[in-house]
Amino acid sequence: MYGAYIPRKPRKVLVLGSGALQIGQAGEFDYSGTQAIKALKEEGIATVLINPNIATIQTSEGMADKLHLTAVTPEFVERILVKEEVDALLLSFGGQTALNCGLALDEAGVLDNYGVRVLGTPVKTIRDTEDRKLFIERLAEIGVATARSRACRTADEVRSAARQIGFPVMLRGGFALGGQGSGIVETEADLDQALRRIFANGVPQVLVEESLRGWKEIEYEVVRDGRDNCIAVCNMENLDPMGIHTGESIVVAPSQTLNDEEYQLLRSVAIKTIRHLGIVGECNIQYALNPRGTDYRVIEVNARLSRSSALASKATGYPLAYVAAKIALGYTLPEIPNAITRRTTAFFEPALDYLVCKVPRWDLPKFRGASMRIGTEMKSVGEVMAIGRTFPEVIQRALRMLDIGVWGLDPEAFEFEDLEDSLCNATPLRIFAVAQALQRGTTVERIHELTRIDPWFLHAIEPIVRVHRELKQKSPPFDETTLREAKELGFADRKIRELTQALPGSIRAERKRLGIAPHLAQIDTLAAEWPAETNYLYSSYHARATDTAPSWRKKVMVLGSGAYRIGSSVEFDWCCVNAVKAARELGYETLMVNYNPETVSTDYDECDKLIFDEVSFESVLEIYEREQPYGVVVSMGGQLPNNLAIRLHRAGVRILGTSAESIDRAEDRHKFGALLDQLGIDQPRWEHITHASDAERIVEQLGGYPVLVRPSYVLSGAAMSVAREKNELLRILARASAVSPEHPVVVSKFETHARELEIDAVADGGEIVLWAISEHVEDAGVHSGDATLVLPPQSLYIATIRQARKIAQALAKALRITGPFNVQYLAKLNEVKVIECNLRASRSFPFVSKVTGNNFVIEAMRRMLGVSRAVENHSIDLDYVAVKAPMFSF
Questions:
Q1: Cα–Cα dist 494/888, whole Å
Q2: Arithmetic mean of pLDDT over the chain
Q3: What pLDDT, on a 0 to 100 scale, did the predictor assign at position 165?
């Protein structure tokens, strides 16, 4: 059964995790590591995992046989190798952190000393791909073109190489994460500053290479087993040209602008390169392709699972990490079954009868003074993936998924002071600048000249701009042709309503009248060429029938968290996966709706039916009416689904757990403040601002500065700030955008030198059944997501803890909470004041669950589904202390 690559099966395997989430390394490695552990456990192999990230799925109880919540560093890993007596190691599933750690262990002779094998790609091959000098030499052996370059270790060597190659040049760090420190240097005068930046990041080697800015950037995901079977699983094309990091770029799969000659050339080079390097498992190869011919350069090969691997897995339905783990154990591709069809093997190249578009999400406005320019160094904090049949459909859907306040590719969404500069110099909003330029009559040729974006993409955007203009001249009732074209081009009901100035709900009613509805299509990896029953679905207005019929089983629909962003990351993925697990254990059929390619919750074997679609009112209501679930869970995916609760409830959707009215009562600052007054619970003094002109008067009523400014229904303190004087307050109010009677902003007295604490809890019918109080190390004024949390509390008075617990119980009863909730408090001189209450799972739910040994999410889901049991609460009487420390992206 096993191939010749590994003659014996390992007894115990150590899997290296990715450590803290950071720019360039996020939830995709949680997904990859989880898949690897599943593959090992299927073979009966003992698994040991090292990862300090408390919020990941892979650090959940029951995943690995043994979990070490320690840093992924050579010192810790060596101690664990000895302690656990492992005989094999997996390096390829934890991103750059794990890879660099493995290379350091090998170089120090640690692996040889303890007889530990590296499974999958050999260490020599990994070093050949990571060391830029060796990489170029290895590819030259088989005549594969790479960029003219020199590998340098000192600043003087870089200066000499740059002069020799000629400016502009690209500086790229070896062994670096997310393009850290890299960039294009235009002139020799700019070189010193670039050198300080790149060497400050501690990279041991810098590659100076010719600038290929403006060339197309193409990627192939390739799999090879130990018997030299090799396939290209997926190819992807960046909409942005070279000069923009692939993690910063809009990406489509499969490629749209390559002709067959170009596609086959790059595929052949990929397979030849991977065979020559000796990759065993999965890898990613990136190219620069001259848009005026077949001249190409291989930019890099990642001899590991990458961000793109997770994207490619979700785009194709081919589980790259799972297959790579099986190959590492010695299986060959023909021996591994296709996990979706169950009828074919992994030794095939998936065929796609749909189009996938990935768009990154940035949170740059949160950082004062941060440059809005994007380039070779990654800045994005998350990404979304949209699936559809045409490029206009997926680009509009993807831009809505970002949750940045737009309802598609709106040419009027943003103002650009200098439109040509916004086209020349890429920012997160460049795609909107392209649409605006087309609207103003700029030719495709001119936009291509300024952006180097392929004309195919620009021509594909033109119909969106045309229909946007035409809809502004129409009003309901529509003819079928007009409305169907708009929906097939990806326009949301809400956007059509805004453009036509129609009444709320009227566009949906028009669609129903005309029989225009989205249908669910299957992702089967075979482009429907082979019969397949799959549970992986997406919706499209181009589909004319739904591929699957709803079952008659009792169903629960869980809404995911959408894009990772500052304040909403992998912890909500953990909550959603555990919620689905709990519902399945109780016999329910589970439906997951989410659109984040990095998550474990969008792994099709986690639930009975995965619908890769928007978490929006329009899409959720369509799915709800088609599938008819018993109820919908809005409390596990963070703020995004929570914000939909009241609208879904009014549309007749059954919200499981705490009622939508209670959620609204807690989220609306005015209603919540009134509730606290009614219950006699202390809170910082506050007032509403509905007009900026009232600000100064309200501050006087509160007793003067400093004051805290916060809008309602926001995530992770968006637009929330402390103002210490009038001008600062006015700037903050401007950032809080539309301050109006419909969108009031709360201004409260800011308490100085106060302690901050929070309680995470689960209630059933208004009675708390699980709770844990965490203490902030920093004084109040540091957002809870930026603060260092300690559990159990170390410096709080027992009376303070009791008071916080008593307040939480009073709120649970008044709001009739069933399910998860979180309350944040200020404590000063033993007086406790409530800051806010979230009637949903919080970022700290994985933390308190793993520290206390009580899974708060599973217990919450049980209660939401009407199942109760006796629970022992362990949160104060722990004989150890846990500390959650944040990782900052700046």
A1: 36
A2: 91
A3: 87
**What number of other Cβ atoms are within 10 A of residue 443's Cβ?**
11
pLDDT band with cut points at 50, 70 and 90 for residue 3:
very low
Between the alpha carbon of residue 233 and those of residues 254, 314, 315, 322, 445, the distances in Å are: 10, 12, 10, 14, 33
- β-bridge partners, 217: 288
Decide if pLDDT at 529 tops 70: no
Integer Cα distance of 348 and 318 in angstroms = 10
List strands edge to edge, sheet with 46-50: 66-68, 46-50, 12-16, 88-90, 117-118
- Cα dihedral 68→73→76→77 (10° resolution): 70
Pairwise CA distance, residues 426 & 410, whole Å: 18
| Preceding amide of 711 cis, omega within 30 | no
Residue 524, Cα to own-chain centre: how many angstroms?
24
Return the structure tokens found at 384: 């979304």
633 phi and psi angles, rounded to 5 deg:
-100, 115
pLDDT of 718 > 60? The answer is no
Q: How many CB atoms lie within 10 A of CB 259?
A: 9
pLDDT, average across residues 270-274: 98
How far is Cα 838 from Cα 805, in angstroms, rounded to an integer? 15
Written as one letter, the residue type at 686 is: W
Please give the backbone phi and psi of residue 391, each rounded to the nearest 5 degrees, phi first.
Answer: -65, -45
Helix (H) or strand (E) run with residue 208 in it: strand 206-210
Q: According to DSSP H, which parts of 493-569 are helical?
A: 493-500, 506-514
pLDDT confidence of residue 172: 78
Q: What is the DSSP letter of 725?
A: S
Confidence of residue 589 (pLDDT cuts 50, 70, 90): very high
Q: Check if the beta carbon of residue 776 is closer than 8 Å to that of residue 788.
A: yes
Q: How far apart are CA 700 and CA 687, in angstroms?
A: 11
CA distance 419 to 433: 7
Q: Tell me the C-alpha to C-alpha distance, in Å, between residue 41 and each of 13, 117, 606.
A: 10, 18, 16
